[in-house]
């Protein structure tokens, strides 16, 4: 079996500003993510989680080190629509209804499949996405023809997730997608995301501040620390799937929550490291 990673990050470094205002947002970040796994990134505010996601999404370039997606640069992977992105706020087009919003990327990116690198084409080979079915699966069957202004925050975020999945990205990047939602909506969306992921089995990189969310969703939780932004722990979550809301109450689940909280506290307390200018 091919064990090449879906995402390979090697010695990545990202610096903002210059002179007295230099800030090392990421330093010495190494991370390999296996295809089809669900990886969460957690860490104190300002530790570089979003920056890391932006490097993978080719929205930023590292100042040093390498990022590869299925063996090609993030730019090439994005051109081939290998990468889907769900931002913190759903950013739907207000004049299009739900179905039109989720169909739009598909319409403007016909032919992207042909630009897929061989490594990704080998793992994809999926039938075309039935967007209407996906919308029904996430409980938006009654809302297909509604405008974003007629939707709740949770419905808008579900629309954004289906939109990102429409092009069948091999890598789905999610930057705190549920952070603005109440706890019950958040739990419901976690469940729907897990159901979708179970069906689609894409590689997911998910930024969150919630320990419970990270444990429930992930195969692996990456813990980061600030100053400079760096990875301090990579914890595999060895819990069976499917992970129902009931599992959150079990001792095994609490064990992982406690472990990650301990590592996060250590990350908060970790001393600032000197970085090469
Ligand atoms: N475009 C930019 N210009 C200058 N500094 C930036 C820029 N983007 C991020 N930073 C800084 O880089 C550091 C890492 O930011 P980043 O947004 O990646 O952190 P984060 O872990 O995602 O934070 P949060 O959890 O608060 O969203 C922060 O100190 C931030 O102020």
UniProtKB/TrEMBL annotation:
<dbReference type="Pfam" id="PF00005">
    <property type="entry name" value="ABC_tran"/>
</dbReference>
<feature type="domain" description="ABC transporter">
    <location>
        <begin position="7"/>
        <end position="251"/>
    </location>
</feature>
<keyword id="KW-0813">Transport</keyword>
<dbReference type="GO" id="GO:0016887">
    <property type="term" value="F:ATP hydrolysis activity"/>
</dbReference>
<keyword id="KW-0067">ATP-binding</keyword>
<keyword id="KW-0547">Nucleotide-binding</keyword>
<dbReference type="InterPro" id="IPR003439">
    <property type="entry name" value="ABC_transporter-like_ATP-bd"/>
</dbReference>
<dbReference type="GO" id="GO:0005524">
    <property type="term" value="F:ATP binding"/>
</dbReference>
<dbReference type="InterPro" id="IPR050166">
    <property type="entry name" value="ABC_transporter_ATP-bind"/>
</dbReference>
<protein>
    <submittedName>
        <fullName>ABC transporter ATP-binding protein</fullName>
    </submittedName>
</protein>
<dbReference type="InterPro" id="IPR003593">
    <property type="entry name" value="AAA+_ATPase"/>
</dbReference>
<dbReference type="InterPro" id="IPR027417">
    <property type="entry name" value="P-loop_NTPase"/>
</dbReference>
């Amino acid at each position: 079996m091919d064990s090449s990673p879906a995402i390979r990050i090697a010695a990545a470094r990202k610096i903002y500003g210059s002179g007295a205002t230099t800030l090392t947002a990421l330093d010495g970040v190494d991370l390999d993510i296996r295809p089809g796994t669900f990886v969460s990134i957690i860490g104190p505010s300002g530790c570089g989680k979003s920056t890391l996601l932006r490097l993978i999404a080719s929205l930023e370039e590292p100042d040093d080190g390498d990022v590869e997606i299925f063996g090609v640069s993030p730019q090439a992977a994005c051109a081939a629509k290998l990468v889907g992105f769900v931002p913190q706020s759903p950013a739907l087009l207000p004049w299009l209804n739900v179905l039109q919003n989720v169909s739009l990327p598909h319409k403007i990116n016909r032919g992207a499949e042909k630009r897929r690198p061989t490594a990704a084409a080998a793992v994809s080979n999926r039938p075309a996405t039935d967007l209407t079915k996906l919308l029904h699966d996430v409980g938006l069957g009654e809302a297909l023809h509604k405008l974003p202004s007629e939707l709740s925050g949770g419905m808008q975020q579900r629309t954004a997730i289906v939109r990102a999945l429409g092009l069948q990205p091999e890598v789905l990047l999610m930057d705190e997608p549920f952070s603005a939602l109440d706890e019950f909506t958040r739990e419901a969306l976690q469940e729907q995301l897990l159901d979708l992921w179970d069906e689609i089995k894409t590689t997911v990189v998910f930024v969150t501040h919630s320990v419970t969310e990270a444990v429930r969703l992930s195969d692996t939780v990456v813990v980061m620390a600030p100053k400079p932004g760096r990875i301090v722990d990579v914890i595999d979550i060895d819990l069976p799937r499917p992970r129902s809301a009931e599992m959150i109450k079990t001792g095994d689940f609490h064990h992982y929550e406690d472990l990650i909280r301990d590592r996060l506290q250590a990350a908060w307390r970790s001393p600032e490291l000197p970085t090469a200018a």
